[in-house]
Design a protein that fits this description.
Helices cover 32% and strands 17% of the residues. It has helices spanning 25-36, 41-55, 132-143, 148-161, 167-175, 177-180, 184-190, 206-218, 220-224, 227-238, 245-250, 278-288, 301-321, 338-345, 361-365, 469-482, 487-492, 511-519; strands at residues 14-15, 18-22, 65-71, 78-82, 97-102, 113-115, 163-164, 202-203, 254-256, 260-264, 267-271, 386-392, 397-403, 449-453, 456-464, 496-497, 504-505, 538-545, 548-553, 561-564.
Amino acid sequence: MQLSQRLAGHEVIQATKGMVTAQHPLAVKAGIDTLQRGGNAVDAAVTAAFAIGVLQPLWNGIGGGGLIVVQMAHEEAKAIDYGMQLPGLATADMYDLETTGAAQGFSRSFSVPAVRGAANEQGYSSVSIPGTVAGLARALELWGTISLYQALDPAITYAEEGFAVEGNFILATVDRADVLLNFPETADIYFPNGRPLKIGDRLVQRDHAETLKKIATGGPDAFYRGEIASLISADMEANGGLLRESDFAQYEPIVHERAEIGSYRGHQVSTMPGPCGGPTVLEILKILENFDMPATRRGSADWLHLVIEATRLAAIDRFSFMGASKIADFPISILADSAYAKTRAMQIETSRRGDYEAGDPWNIAGMDRPADFPAPAGQMRDRGTVHLSVVDASQNAVALTQTNMGYSGVVNPGVGVMLNNAMGWACPVPGTVNSIVPHGRALNNMCPTIVSRNGRVEYVLGGSGGRRIWPAIAQIVSGLIDDGMSLQDAIEAPRMHVETDDPMIDRRFDPAVVAEIENRGHRVAMPPEHYLLWPFTEANGIEVSGGEMRSGIAPANKPAHAGGI
């Protein structure tokens, strides 16, 4: 028997003077208010990003990091990587490993041992150097028009005065109560009187507000070279953590004067360079470009098989070549090169599932493979992350994704900020491409993306959902370009997730198509039936056509909102 799926819907809105999409209505309001006061898209994005760090403090905030892609009108896209950085005291063999079990569920071929006590995913030993303050401040400095004080004002208000919490926030706190209740400062905020907040209760974060006020008046130095860094470092050292004041003092966001830019059937796709989801999205698309996807009926077995196989090939390359930058000097952009993608596409058989190995990008790059190139590594779990998109009246565009990875559970006394657990992004085994190195940046899944044509922005999008982000963004972009779908339709269309092994397929696909996919050798997994457990990326974005902007939002378990003027 087949049951209909209970899915919420998004009311697409239209605007001409500016639009913001984000995963909290008050963050949308903060961004729209900024636009209405004359700010540009970067001003609005930074303001909304600081705000959502207060409004969704488990998933992101100034204790974490992120990526931002900016395309100012009539200019080439640029980007800032303000991801978390591994501590200087971190070492490749710092964790005790379990003798059985794996730390991930979708890539058997690239799985890694679990860490004893999940020490790389919770508690003081899981925390990496935060980058949000430095990255957002730098974006404002380069492309914004308002002060850091102005950008922080809504976040300070939400932290100091509180706001009514929603159901998804309550579910998140209850789901990880075993972690949150381990830390007194954390428990006082999220479990007052030992009990979780109820829907509609106000979450007040007074220490968080005071920390934001210090940053508003003192700039990034107040966070990285002042009292805040001292408080965090002292608490970390007292409890076995690795962060020190010297880690904060050396942190710098990475500014890319040119985003990672690829083409797909005449459209420009701009995303983040480096060890993140961006190059993998581009590789999937470049592989698909070798097939007549516009003539292949979306949702058919042929279509689904090609998307699965292209994603698997790109995932194998991702886990084989991408990782902490100080381990491997590898030309990541080659993975999205047309000539290299053609060599990968030639391996796909349309009638059956392939058994693949990593490709040979060195040949395309005109380089010899280093004899000591590290072994492949798997990708760890990721529970956090938020995404927001902004377009202003001048059609300046911003795609911004930020995260706490999954959050450590640690809130330092006197600081009030949830810290990340980004040590969990790195492979806990020495000798791999993504092993832990001091001050390295481990492989992450974020891929804020801007699609344009002839210099004009067409779509701004991204998503949250850990490892499921990059396969989803590739499928959405394919839907927009190959199938001519609206952004909302492309986001809501049935989707699959796969890494290197077996696909998870949306229950809305025709059962006959799923059966045919299984006949081609794929071992299909089906997601939970309830939409609150929807296991696919929650994407949001903005479609731009002429002078009109239209919202696109995945209406599932981490609700997003759109605002327009």
